[in-house]
Amino acid sequence: MSCLCITGADIREFGAKMSGPPLVPMIHMIEAAAKPVVAAIEGVALGGGLELALSCHYRIAHSKARLGLPEVTLGLLPGAGGTQRLPRLIGVPAALELITTGRHVTAAEALQLGIVDEVTDQNAVDAAVKFAQSVEGKSLDARRIGTFPCPRPPDLDAVFEKVMKEVRRSARGAIAPVTCVQAVHAAVTLPYAKGMERERELFSTLFTSGQARALQYYFFAQRAVSRWSTPSGARWDTSKPRPVRKAAVIGLGTMGRGISVSLAQAGFSVVAVETQEKQLLEAKQAVSGMLERDAKRRGAPLAHGNIKYSCSLKAAADVDLVIEAVFEDMALKKAIFRQLSAICKPGTFLCSNTSALDIDELASQTQSPELVVGMHFFAPAHVMKLLEVVYGPRSSPEAVATAMQMGKKIGKVSVAVGNCRGFVGNRMLKPYLEQAFFLLEEGATPEQVDQVLEEFGFPMGVFKVSDLSGLDVGWKVRKADGLVVPDSTGKSARIQGGRRYSPLGDLLCEQGRFGQKTGRGWYQYDKPGGRVAKSDPWLHRFLEEYRARHGLVARRIDQQEVLERCLYALINEGFQILQDGIAAGPEDIDVIYVLGYGWPRHRGGPMFFADMVGLDKVLDRLERYHQLHPDVPGLKPCSLLRKLAAGGCPPIHRWREVIQKPHSQL
Ligand SMILES: CCCCCCCCCCCCC[C@H](O)CC(=O)SCCNC(=O)CCNC(=O)[C@H](O)C(C)(C)COP(=O)(O)OP(=O)(O)OC[C@H]1O[C@@H](n2cnc3c(N)ncnc32)[C@H](O)[C@@H]1OP(=O)(O)O
């Protein structure tokens, strides 16, 4: 008997010398053993752990155990017989689903699927001993999965064709899911030994791929961000969070509703405040609907009772933490922070869901600026996994720790970032969007730019995203910044403050084209609120007229230029953010971009991507583009990038040494 709680191969060992006995010969030995081997599974049996269990003759799982083959999420496939044994045990469709998604299953589901033979609430080892005694003397012939014929679906080709199509669509360029399908196909079409050879071959291809490196980097990055630190020396391991039981959400628009749902679902007592009675009623209905739908989907109890609704800020008097989620209007937010500071009990943390505004300016309205931090959620707030926790110069370590912990409790990945316009995510978005606009001026179309970005792996190109989130959002910000002004000839100015500026987005807004909500934006939709973007001849004519008006000659722009100008401008801002100390390390930026902005996970994140491309190459291309566009400061390589390149392009895990020691050359 063997007792298992194995998370699979030690990923840190990949690429280094691996210790311990090699797994594949070991599992063959176990399966061939003459004595019955029973696996007792407690905790988790994942990856190589489950593959080891599959080589045993019987499997007993504790009811709280979780099982799965998550290798695909690390850019791999189950490489110790998992792709050959699982379909033999539970059939091809179920095995394909588990292997291509990497989904973990509960012990109950594993029993239902036939992965385990028994589930117990008692000690799994004791149950397995008992089980072993009950099968004593029985033949093991029918228990060695490797000897089973693989069930062959009658419509084999159609099954695999359908799965492959679906997997390719959802993989968005990730190769591991597609390779997993190929490995399972080998289980059906080849004898076991040949199937194992094929599995090994495919595993080796993935193992040495850049995507596996990216996904494994990302796995650790997502865990590393919880070990936050700030330039003033506050740290995760020396800052104690304060307990929060009751929280208030101020403003019940789309974001406030999503935040309320997240808090209620996590068991917090919530006070939801919206000052207009009509909006409050609407919000109450909407939040109830969201909670009901979600409870139904998850088979979880309803969290209605946790939320109290009120029209008055005074209802927040006794809460431990407030999240303000009103319109993105500094004057309004300041007024609310002033009132909250007077209303709330001493020690209440005051947080803002602002996506770009100055946290310190808000803190300055309160009696206790050390209690103020940003909690920037991403829409839809009850779905998106990311939370930017923004510390201002006066935020206390305790306030940061409390917001970080709160994020974790509501199931978010919280990333601590410094206070600047747009924080990390939205600050990097600005040069990216700017390049997309400039490309249109120079001859590209929204379709072309979006196609390049979607082929890179983004779920949607920049113009489709802009239509989805509403062009008016950025327009309001640009107007507030004084950017939306005509030049001396009455045309929209293309230079603002000595820098190139594209008024294209403003001109569309002036035409009432706000994107999906108005049925027109960079694309056209069948009706206001329509979702399917269609190319719009009006937009193409508009671009031609615009270029003619401004004396711009359209040129052919290739895919490489589209990609490099959009992504390298964004990455360059990422280096500036690291240099400014707004993010503590590249992992913070990468997690924000993967979880908040659709950056393809199999490319690790923008900073990891820069590392993969080669910092010297990124620098070289930025220098070239900056020469061609000297009026675009976003293309001027940041000095940290120069320094890293001059220091021999150290690998990403060594960048912090350079960032933390300003004079280090490595
Ligand atoms: C040409 C070359 C050919 C090369 C041939 C090489 C031959 C190799 C032979 C093939 C054998 C293949 C074997 C197999 O098919 C491959 C695998 O098994 S890959 C691994 C699969 N397992 C996983 O993906 C599990 C990953 N882990 C998790 O999902 C979670 O960590 C968890 C187990 C569910 C626990 O979650 P939590 O409780 O929330 O805890 P954390 O996630 O915070 O983790 C705590 C801590 O542990 C670290 N950690 C977790 N799993 C691993 C791991 N598999 N390897 C290394 N480290 C792991 C995690 O990072 C945390 O540490 P921290 O980062 O915080 O320091």
TrEMBL record:
Belongs to the enoyl-CoA hydratase/isomerase family. In the C-terminal section; belongs to the 3-hydroxyacyl-CoA dehydrogenase family. Residues 246-419 form the 3-hydroxyacyl-CoA dehydrogenase NAD binding domain. InterPro entries: 3-OHacyl-CoA_DH_CS, 3-OHacyl-CoA_DH_NAD-bd, 3HC_DH_C, 6-PGluconate_DH-like_C_sf, ClpP/crotonase-like_dom_sf, Enoyl-CoA_hyd/isom_CS, Enoyl-CoA_hydra/iso, NAD(P)-bd_dom_sf. It catalyses: (3S)-hydroxydecanoyl-CoA = (2E)-decenoyl-CoA + H2O; (3S)-hydroxyhexadecanoyl-CoA + NAD(+) = 3-oxohexadecanoyl-CoA + NADH + H(+); a (3E)-enoyl-CoA = a 4-saturated (2E)-enoyl-CoA; (3S)-hydroxyhexadecanedioyl-CoA + NAD(+) = 3-oxohexadecanedioyl-CoA + NADH + H(+). It holds the Pfam family 3HCDH_N. CDD domains: crotonase-like. It is found in: Peroxisome. GO terms for cellular component: peroxisome. Signal peptide: none annotated. Residues 422-525, 562-647 form the 3-hydroxyacyl-CoA dehydrogenase C-terminal domain. Monomer. Coiled coil: none annotated. GO terms for biological process: fatty acid beta-oxidation. This is Peroxisomal bifunctional enzyme. Keywords: Fatty acid metabolism, Isomerase, Lipid metabolism, Lyase, Multifunctional enzyme, NAD, Oxidoreductase, Peroxisome. Its EC number is 1.1.1.35, 4.2.1.17, 5.3.3.8. Pathway: Lipid metabolism; fatty acid beta-oxidation. GO terms for molecular function: (3S)-3-hydroxyacyl-CoA dehydrogenase (NAD+) activity; delta(3)-delta(2)-enoyl-CoA isomerase activity; enoyl-CoA hydratase activity; NAD+ binding. It comes from the Eukaryota.
